[in-house]
Design goal:
Blueprint: E1 7-10, E2 15-19, H1 26-37, E3 42-46, E4 55-61, E5 64-70, E6 76-80, E7 95-97, E8 100-102, E9 109-111, E10 116-118, E11 142-146, E12 149-153, H2 161-165, H3 169-176, E13 183-194, H4 198-205, H5 211-214, H6 216-224, H7 227-230, E14 235-241, E15 244-250, H8 267-283, H9 285-293, E16 294-300, E17 304-308, E18 312-321, E19 324-334, H10 339-353, H11 360-373, E20 382-384, H12 400-414
Antiparallel strand pairs: 1-2, 2-20, 3-12, 4-5, 4-7, 5-6, 8-9, 9-10, 11-12, 13-19, 14-15, 15-16, 16-17, 17-18, 18-19
Helix pairs in contact: 8-9
Length: 423
């Protein structure tokens, strides 16, 4: 079986294994920062979070503290949240609206376009002190967006975002096109931490195999409501290039984008029918049916998850150490959604996807148990990710989508030309 430090793969026999050292090594985490988080496109935020000129949010992205804002001219920016004088934050709020950012340490002030506009004791500085702009707020190397999803890249020489997203773009379109007037982030940010390696959540987020056992309580709930008898769960997995992957499948739960369920009551039928009719008019019957009746768990390598399921959640996560990560999640929906459908969407979101829902506590427990299990690494040193490898059309319960992630991760980490194409 061909192997390197992290991956063993035998395509002929259908075997794929990942070394557990990938989940526990501090030196490996430092290399991930250099080769993955410093070079890949990373999700920063959605355009709806910056609805008006002057709006801003602050984010911690791959160890950097950033300001994501729309300036007074309407231009979207990504600045490093550090004063060019002595390094303190220039913005200490999580979000807001401001024409300037002022460092509380010595009072240097910057416009929301990033320009240094005032310094206490300015007459003590030399003439033309900032003529070259070196003391303006520093910008992140690259900032681009696709369908309102903004990404940054710390590598100025990186490929364009649209090229990086590649075959993942149509799946982002299936989310963005659900709205007539645009998608929006609903409410604030859900933040929590998990005592496990970040790659475990990448796997978990696109893993259909664990649902029946890890989420048995939720499956019992669906069974008792009769939902599983009405609509099963079936579908497929797709590698999308550059480490991106998706599972797409039918479901027994209600979808605010036009899949009614009896638990919503008869009153919801007309709302759903109206949404579906408008969706068909915009997208055509085939795409509208796919958008309304199929779910998608989409991974944008390395750490953006868009779950378009019983609600839409956008989630990112970053390592603090080999065995701890921080997680940020946001609910998303169409701007024009009426009050009743918005309530159903948020109920669905909190019921399953939220930190206190059916799914997330189960997943956190599973991932933390995996991390604790890696203390036995000397006896059992490899994870198996072989399921469905010899199938022509892998299903959602197979692991093809995870192998797509690991091949890209391995290529970047080892700098060897290991094939990352779909099976």
């Amino acid at each position: 079986m061909p192997q390197n430090a992290y991956i063993m793969e035998d395509r002929a026999r259908g075997l794929f294994k990942v070394a557990r050292t990938a989940f526990v090594s501090s030196s490996l985490l430092a290399l991930e920062q250099e080769r993955i988080f410093d070079r890949c496109w990373l999700y920063l935020g959605h355009e709806s979070e910056l609805a008006k000129p002057g709006d801003f949010v602050t984010r911690a992205i791959a160890g950097r503290n950033l300001i994501f804002n729309r300036d007074s001219k309407g231009v979207v920016n990504a600045f490093y949240n550090t004063c060019t004088h002595r390094g303190a934050f220039v913005c200490r709020e999580a979000k807001g609206n401001s024409k300037l950012f002022q460092c509380f340490y010595h009072g240097w002030a910057f416009s929301n376009e990033g320009a240094l506009i005032d310094q206490p004791g300015k007459d003590a500085y030399c003439e033309g002190f900032n003529d070259n702009g070196a003391s303006n707020l520093a910008r992140v190397g690259r900032l681009e967006n696709y369908r309102g999803f903004y990404f940054i890249n710390f590598d100025r020489g990186a490929i364009r975002l649209d090229e990086y997203l590649g075959d993942a773009r149509p799946f982002i379109d299936l989310v963005a096109d659900q709205a007539e007037t645009g998608m929006e982030i609903i409410g604030g940010t859900q933040q929590y931490a998990i005592d496990a390696n970040w790659k475990l959540l990448t796997e978990n987020s696109i893993d259909g195999y664990h649902a029946a056992t890890t989420h048995a309580t939720y499956m019992d709930y669906l069974g008792n409501s009769g939902a599983l008898a009405r609509v099963g769960m079936s579908g497929g997995a797709h590698a999308l290039g550059n480490g991106h992957a998706v599972i797409e499948y039918s479901s027994p739960w209600g979808r605010p984008i036009a899949q009614w369920v009896p638990t919503w009551g008869e009153a919801a039928k007309q709302d759903v029918a109206d949404i579906k009719a408008r969706l068909v008019a915009r997208a055509g019957p085939q795409k509208a049916e796919r958008m309304s009746s199929l779910n998608r768990n989409l991974l944008i390598f390395p750490n953006l998850i868009i779950n378009d399921v019983m609600a839409i959640t956008v989630r990112t996560f970053y390592p603090l150490s080999p065995d701890r990560m921080t997680v940020n999640a946001w609910a998303m929906g169409p701007r024009e959604e009426n009050v009743a459908m918005r309530e159903r969407r948020l109920f669905n979101f909190l019921e399953f996807l939220g930190p206190g829902g059916f799914a997330t506590p189960d997943d956190v427990e599973a991932l933390e148990m995996c991390q604790r299990g890696y203390k036995n690494i000397q006896a059992v040193g490899w994870n198996d990710i072989s399921k469905g490898m010899l199938r022509e059309k892998p299903g959602t319960n197979d692991e093809s989508q995870m192998r797509a992630f690991w091949r890209q991760w391995n290529m970047l980490m080892t700098q060897t030309p290991m094939e990352a194409a779909a099976e």
